[in-house]
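Incident log, support desk, overnight shift.

02:14 A customer reports that sequence design results differ from what the structure should imply. Their input is reproduced verbatim below. On-call engineer (initials T.W.) acknowledged and began investigating.
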C-alpha cells in the first residue's frame, strides 16, 4: 500500500490530522512535521530551498503527498529539484501567489505583529473563529493552540516566503499536480487558483473546487475529505480553454455562462441550456493539444456559434468525435465591438472590428489597431477611436486597458492572448491563452551579453538562459514589487536567439523618474527617449533606500552561498548523476548567480563613488589563473584538464570599511567592484568543475541560431536601431596600426585578457562603463574607449588614440 504523507500549513503539528487518519483505507496515511513544527526539534532552515531539502530527507520517493497552505511551497521546490519524486501531489489551498498584493504578508511585516499574532493563536485561537469554524462546526481549539505554541518556524516562515523567492522557476515543473480549494475558504481565496494556473504553466495541473468546504475540510468534514482523496472525481484540466474560463469566472471576471462537458449526453446539459441565451450558444473545443504555454494550435478544432439549444448536444458530439476530450458550451454574446489583444502588463496590442470577431478571424473585415503602453512614448501608438463607425457612445482606450489588465492580473501578470467583446454595456472575456509567439514592441539589446557569451552559445547555456529568464527579475522585488506587476523576463528571443530585455530595466527607471540614457551608459547599447521626471525620482527615495541596504545584504551572503552550491554540485558528481540532473542544477544555479550579479550591480550603482578606496581586484593576478579563458561564461567552453581550482574567500575589509558597508555610507564603489570581480572569478571556478563533471557532451554543442543583431533594437524587428554612446574607459595616449597595435573589437570579453595585454590600446564598438570588460581594462591600465562609429577603412592604417579620441595619422 502506498503512503500518503500529510503536511499541514504554518503553525501546524502532526496531531492536526488525527480526525482524518481513521478514515483512510486506500492509503497508509502518515502525518509529517517539518523542522520547527510540532515535535520536530531539528535546527531551523534558512530558506524555502533548505526547507525542501529537510522535507526530502524525511520521505521515501514514490509515494503521495497532501500539503496545505504555505507548506505547499517546499513540496514544489522539491519537485523542481527532483521531478517525479512523488507518485501523486495534492495541494490544498496553497499559499505563494500574489504575495506582494496580499494584505496579510504586509501586515505581518510590521514590527511586533508576528509575535503578537502567534501569542494570540497560542492562547486565544477562538479570536480567529471566522477562519477556523464553519456553520454547525467548532474545531478543537486546544489542539490548534498547542500547534502554534510549539511552532518555532511560525515567525521565520514569513521571512522565508517572500515574493522574490517563493515561486522561483516554478514554470519548469512538469509533474501532475492536483489543486483543491474549498469555495468557502476564508483564509486563502479560491480566486487564487487562476494565478496558480499561470505559475505552474507546464505542470499537468487539475483544479477541484468543492462548494461546501472551507480552509480546513480535514477538520470540518474528515470522512468526506478522505473519500474525495481516495475515490473522488478528478478536477478539470486547468491549461485548457474551458479550464481558464472556469478559473476566470470563479475569480469574478466577466465570462459568459459556461459549462464544460466531456460527453454529449451529459445529464447536466439540459438544465444548463435552460439559461437565458437570446443569441444562442457558442460550442467550442477545449483540447489538451491547444492553448498551451509552448504551442497555441489556434484554430485546430471546430467552433460553432449561435447554436440553438436543440442543436448543442449534436455539435458537442461532433467536436468530441474529432478527438477533443472536453467541450465548452457558453451563452453567445452578440457584441457591438469585439477583437483580440496581445496583452502584457506594460503594453497591449489590440485589434478589433464592429460586430463579432469571427469577421476578424476569417479575414472578411479589416481590423482597427492600437498599441497602448504604460510607459508611453515609443512603446505605444496614438490609439484610434474604438467608437469609429459606431452610432452610439463606445468605450475609451482607458476602459479596455483596465479590462484587459484585470484579466492579466488574475492570471498572475501572465502575458496573454485575449479574445474580448463589448456588448454596448460591458466587456466580456471570451478566451485567454498564454502568448507563445508574438513580436512585442519591446526594446532588446545585445550589449553586455556580447561581452560574456559567443554569438552561438552552447545548447546547455541557451537552455538555462531561456529557462531562468522569467524568474531572474524577481530579485528586484526585494526593494520594488512593481517588477512583479510588470512580469518582464530578463532576456527575450529574437530570430531564435536570446537578447537582454531592456524593458525590464527601463520600466523600473521610468517609474523612478530616471533618464533612460543612464542605463545605456552603464551596460552599453541605447534607449528610446525616456526623459527625467524629478518628482518621480523624489517620491522613489524610499525605494532607493531599500535598494541600497538589500543589495549590500546580498553581498554579505555570496561566499557562503557559493560554498553551498559547490557542495551540491560535488554531491552530484560523487553520485555520478545523469546529464539531466546536472542540467537541473545548472538551471537553478544560473538563475541564482544572475540574480546576485543584479544585486551587485545595484550596489555599484548606489555606491556613491569610490572615495573610500580602490582595492585591487582579481584582475591584478590573472596571469596565474588557468581557469580564466575566452568566452568563459559558457560552461561548455573547453577547459584544460587539471584539478578544479578551489573556491577562496573575499579578502577581509578593514573595520572602517565594514562599518561603512553596513551603514550604507557612500564611497564604496571601489570595494564593490572588487566584490563583483571576485564573484565572477569564483563562478569561473565552479564552471570549470561543472564542465568536467557533465557526463554527456552533446549539450555542449553550439545552438543553431546565432545572436547576429548588434546594438539595441525593437523586438518587432523594425529598422530603428540605436548604437552605444562613445565612452572613455581608461585615459592615455597610444599610436599604432588599427587592428594590430590598437585592437578593434566588437565587444569586450574579459576572458581575452592575455590578448588585451599585448596591445597598446583597445577600442570596442559597444560596451558600458560598468561592464566586466571595462573594469578589466581599467585594472590593467590600458588606454581604451567605446567608439561605435569607427571607420572600417582605417583598419590597417596608423592611428592615434588620445583619451578616448581617435584620429588618422597621415
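02:41 Re-run completed on a clean worker. Output:
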Amino acid at each position: 500500500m502506498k503512503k500518503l504523507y500529510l503536511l499541514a500549513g504554518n503553525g501546524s503539528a502532526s496531531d492536526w490530522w488525527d480526525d482524518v487518519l481513521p478514515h483512510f483505507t486506500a492509503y497508509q496515511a502518515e502525518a509529517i512535521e517539518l523542522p520547527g513544527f510540532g515535535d520536530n526539534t531539528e535546527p531551523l532552515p534558512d530558506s524555502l530551498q533548505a526547507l525542501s531539502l529537510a522535507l526530502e530527507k524525511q520521505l521515501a520517493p514514490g509515494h503521495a503527498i497532501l500539503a496545505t497552505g504555505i507548506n505547499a511551497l517546499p513540496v514544489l521546490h522539491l519537485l523542481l529539484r527532483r521531478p517525479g519524486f512523488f507518485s501523486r501531489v495534492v495541494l490544498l489551498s496553497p499559499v505563494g501567489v500574489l504575495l506582494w498584493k496580499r494584505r496579510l504578508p504586509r501586515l505581518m511585516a510590521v514590527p511586533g505583529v508576528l509575535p503578537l499574532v502567534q501569542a494570540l493563536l497560542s492562547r486565544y485561537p477562538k479570536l480567529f473563529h471566522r477562519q477556523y469554524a464553519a456553520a454547525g462546526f467548532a474545531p478543537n481549539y486546544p489542539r490548534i493552540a498547542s500547534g502554534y505554541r510549539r511552532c518555532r518556524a511560525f515567525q521565520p516562515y514569513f521571512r522565508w516566503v517572500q515574493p522574490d523567492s517563493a515561486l522561483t522557476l516554478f514554470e519548469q515543473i512538469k509533474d501532475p499536480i492536483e489543486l483543491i480549494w474549498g469555495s468557502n475558504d476564508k483564509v486563502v481565496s479560491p480566486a487564487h487558483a487562476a494565478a496558480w494556473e499561470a505559475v505552474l504553466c507546464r505542470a499537468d495541473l487539475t483544479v477541484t473546487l468543492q462548494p461546501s468546504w472551507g480552509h480546513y475540510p480535514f477538520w470540518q468534514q474528515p470522512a468526506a475529505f478522505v473519500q474525495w482523496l481516495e475515490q473522488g472525481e478528478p478536477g478539470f484540466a486547468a491549461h485548457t480553454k474551458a479550464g481558464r474560463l472556469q478559473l476566470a469566472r470563479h475569480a469574478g471576471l466577466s465570462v459568459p455562462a459556461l459549462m464544460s462537458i466531456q460527453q454529449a449526453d451529459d445529464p447536466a446539459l439540459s438544465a444548463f441550456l435552460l439559461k437565458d441565451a437570446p443569441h444562442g450558444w457558442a460550442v467550442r473545443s477545449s483540447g489538451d493539444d491547444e492553448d498551451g504555454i509552448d504551442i497555441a494550435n489556434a484554430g485546430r478544432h471546430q467552433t460553432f456559434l449561435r447554436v440553438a439549444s436543440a442543436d448543442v448536444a449534436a455539435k458537442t458530439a461532433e467536436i468530441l468525435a474529432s478527438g477533443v476530450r472536453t467541450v465548452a458550451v457558453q451563452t453567445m454574446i452578440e457584441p457591438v465591438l469585439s477583437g483580440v489583444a496581445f496583452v502584457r502588463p506594460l503594453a497591449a496590442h489590440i485589434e478589433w472590428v464592429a460586430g463579432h470577431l469571427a469577421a476578424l478571424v476569417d479575414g472578411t473585415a479589416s481590423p482597427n489597431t492600437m498599441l497602448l503602453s504604460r510607459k508611453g512614448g515609443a512603446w505605444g501608438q496614438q490609439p484610434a477611436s474604438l467608437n469609429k463607425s459606431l452610432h452610439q457612445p463606445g468605450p475609451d482606450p482607458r476602459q479596455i486597458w483596465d479590462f484587459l489588465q484585470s484579466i492579466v492580473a488574475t492570471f498572475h501578470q501572465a502575458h496573454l492572448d485575449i479574445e474580448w467583446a463589448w456588448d454596448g454595456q460591458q466587456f466580456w472575456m471570451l478566451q485567454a491563452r498564454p502568448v507563445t509567439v508574438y513580436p512585442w514592441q519591446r526594446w532588446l539589446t545585445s550589449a553586455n551579453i556580447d561581452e560574456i557569451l559567443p554569438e552561438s552559445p552552447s545548447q546547455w547555456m541557451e537552455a538555462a538562459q531561456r529557462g531562468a529568464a522569467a524568474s531572474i527579475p524577481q530579485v528586484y522585488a526585494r526593494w520594488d514589487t512593481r517588477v512583479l506587476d510588470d512580469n518582464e523576463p530578463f532576456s527575450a528571443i529574437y530570430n531564435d536567439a536570446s537578447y537582454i530585455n531592456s524593458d525590464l530595466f527601463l520600466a523600473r527607471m521610468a517609474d523612478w523618474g530616471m533618464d533612460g540614457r543612464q542605463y545605456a551608459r552603464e551596460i552599453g547599447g541605447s534607449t528610446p527617449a525616456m526623459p527625467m521626471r524629478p518628482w518621480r525620482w523624489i517620491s522613489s527615495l524610499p525605494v532607493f533606500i531599500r535598494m541600497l541596504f538589500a543589495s549590500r545584504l546580498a553581498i554579505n551572503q555570496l561566499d557562503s552561498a557559493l560554498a553551498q552550491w559547490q557542495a551540491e554540485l560535488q554531491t552530484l558528481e560523487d553520485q555520478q548523476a545523469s546529464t539531466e540532473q546536472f542540467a537541473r542544477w545548472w538551471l537553478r544555479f544560473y538563475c541564482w548567480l544572475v540574480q546576485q550579479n543584479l544585486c551587485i550591480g545595484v550596489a555599484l550603482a548606489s555606491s556613491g563613488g569610490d572615495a573610500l578606496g580602490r582595492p585591487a581586484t582579481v584582475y591584478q593576478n590573472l596571469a596565474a589563473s588557468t581557469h580564466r579563458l575566452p568566452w568563459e561564461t559558457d560552461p561548455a567552453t573547453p577547459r584544460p584538464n587539471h584539478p578544479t581550482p578551489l573556491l577562496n574567500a573575499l579578502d577581509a575589509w578593514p573595520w572602517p570599511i565594514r562599518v561603512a558597508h553596513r551603514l550604507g555610507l557612500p564611497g564604496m564603489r571601489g570595494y564593490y567592484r572588487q566584490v563583483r570581480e571576485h564573484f565572477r572569478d569564483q563562478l569561473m571556478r565552479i564552471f570549470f568543475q561543472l564542465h568536467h563533471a557533465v557526463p554527456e557532451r552533446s549539450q555542449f554543442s553550439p545552438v543553431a541560431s546565432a545572436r547576429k543583431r548588434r546594438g539595441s533594437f525593437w523586438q518587432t524587428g523594425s529598422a530603428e536601431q540605436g548604437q552605444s554612446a562613445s565612452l572613455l574607459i581608461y585615459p592615455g595616449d597610444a599610436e599604432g596600426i588599427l587592428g594590430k597595435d590598437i585592437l578593434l573589437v566588437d565587444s569586450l570579453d574579459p576572458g581575452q585578457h592575455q590578448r588585451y595585454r599585448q596591445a597598446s590600446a583597445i577600442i570596442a564598438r559597444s560596451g558600458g562603463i560598468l561592464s566586466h570588460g571595462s573594469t578589466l581594462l581599467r585594472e590593467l591600465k590600458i588606454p581604451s574607449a567605446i567608439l561605435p562609429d569607427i571607420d572600417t577603412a582605417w583598419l590597417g592604417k596608423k592611428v592615434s588614440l588620445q583619451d578616448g579620441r581617435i584620429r588618422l595619422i597621415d
